[in-house]
Specification:
Protein name: PQQ-dependent sugar dehydrogenase
CATH superfamily of one domain: TolB, C-terminal domain
CATH topology of one domain: Neuraminidase
Helix content: under 10%
Organism: Croceicoccus marinus
Largest sheet: 8 strands, mixed
Keywords: Signal
Structural class: mainly beta
Pfam families: GSDH (PF07995)
InterPro entries: 6-blade_b-propeller_TolB-like, Glc/Sorbosone_DH, Quinoprot_gluc/sorb_DH_b-prop
Distance between the termini: 10 Å
Shape: globular
CATH class of one domain: Mainly Beta
Number of strands: 26
Number of helices: 1
Radius of gyration: 20 Å
Length: 388
């Protein structure tokens, strides 16, 4: 076990320094002032290598067993048991792999103990050179130590409509705390204007019943030509979607050049893309900023330069008191964990923990440890526990 020095990064992107690594288990040692457990800058953790995966995209722990399930973008679903056994799940939907597309998110049903239902998002091919995100629901059956299968998979939702290109699928999944509603993030597919058009579900967050049908009470269900699934719109590319400890839904979006944003998701709200943004286009063309009095909901927290989020959780465990009820974001360009302190409807970045690698996903284990997945081929998944 070897020390890693961790210090608080300011919003101005002061990076965190780590000592050279010499073993598969490493301890983080803070250099910022403050007492561990009180100050996020002083959080001290060890990280343990839990295996290598190929382009991991999302992770989730199976309720009741502690088995970790990992989606690999090219189309493989794997699991890792607590004893280290790694296996593969068969009968996964065929994915259209390329660019940002492939196998995406995984979520276990709120009634998993009785239903054994699991939800997977993925990208499927359409007519010609088109594609779009979809979500399937299946029953997970694990009869062998090193293999499971998906029984009776059924696509319950699709992006409307399929378009060309291989970007901005989003396809994050979140259940409401009461288990009654299924929320799915639907990216704008790099087409921009559909995010302001209620007749389709691109650039939106949709609210469904667990069977995939539109939930009653959605805000635009009674409007002519509007998609009745839509809960909110004007979104770009949502890579984080989660409920906080207060039961509020938040999304985390990639901005264009600058302007990554954390939004409190409200019923019927318009978040402005592509009409407004705190960033600019990649060709440096300007975009109007969010401004007081405009008809759009501004982000609660935003980043320029960007962090390029890979995923997000709200930490609820007891192992890391300074992280409790706050957001942990896996950063791609920022190459580490970003901690955002939550205070009701306010949110502020307070710390960064550098890994020196792009991070794609973050998950909380039943024991309160935090697991993070690196991005790309031969990516390591790390287990974080309090350091000594």
């Amino acid at each position: 076990m070897e020390p890693i020095s961790v210090r608080l990064a300011s919003i101005a992107l002061v990076s965190l320094a780590f000592a050279p690594l010499a073993s598969c288990q490493q301890a983080a040692t803070p250099t910022a002032s403050g007492q561990a457990g009180d100050n996020p800058a002083s959080v001290d953790f060890a990280r343990e290598d839990m295996g290598t995966f190929d382009e991991p995209w999302a992770m989730a722990f199976e309720p009741g067993t502690g088995t970790l399930f990992v989606t690999e973008k090219a189309g493989t679903l794997k699991f890792r048991k607590a004893d280290g056994t790694v296996g593969i799940v068969s009968n996964v939907p065929e994915v259209n792999y390329g660019g940002q597309g492939g196998l995406g998110d995984i979520a276990f049903a709120p009634d998993y103990a009785s239903s054994h239902a699991v939800y997977l998002s993925f990208v499927e091919a359409g007519p010609g050179d088109t594609r779009g995100a979809a979500v399937t629901r299946a029953t997970l059956q694990c009869d062998q130590p090193d293999s499971c299968t998906l029984r009776d998979p059924r696509v319950i939702w699709r992006q409307d409509e399929k378009v060309t290109g291989s970007g901005h699928f989003s396809h994050r999944i979140a259940f409401s705390p009461d288990g009654d509603f299924l929320f799915i993030a639907s990216g704008d597919r790099q087409k921009m204007q559909p995010a302001q058009d209620l007749s389709n579900n691109l650039g939106t967050i949709v609210r469904l019943l667990p069977d995939g049908s539109p939930a009653p009470g959605n805000p635009f269900a009674a409007e002519a030509n509007a998609n009745e699934e839509i809960w909110s719109y004007g979104h770009r590319n949502i890579l984080g979607l989660a409920f906080d400890a207060r039961g509020q839904l938040w999304d985390l979006e990639h901005g264009p050049q600058g302007g990554d944003e954390l939004n409190l998701v409200e019923r019927g709200a318009n978040y402005g893309w592509p009409n407004v943004s705190n960033g600019i286009h990649y060709d440096n063309a300007p975009i109007p900023d969010h401004a007081p009095g405009d008809p759009y909901v501004a982000p609660v927290e935003w980043w320029d330069p960007v962090i390029a989020p890979g995923g997000m959780i709200f930490y609820s465990g007891a192992l890391f008191p300074a992280w409790q009820n706050n957001a942990l974001i896996a950063g791609l360009v920022s190459q580490g964990l970003v901690l955002v302190k939550m205070d009701g409807t306010a949110a502020t970045e307070t710390a960064r923990y550098d890994f020196g690698e792009r991070l794609r996903a973050v998950a909380e284990a039943p024991d309160g440890s935090v697991w993070v997945a690196e991005d790309g081929p031969e990516a390591t998944i790390w287990r974080l526990t309090p350091g000594s």
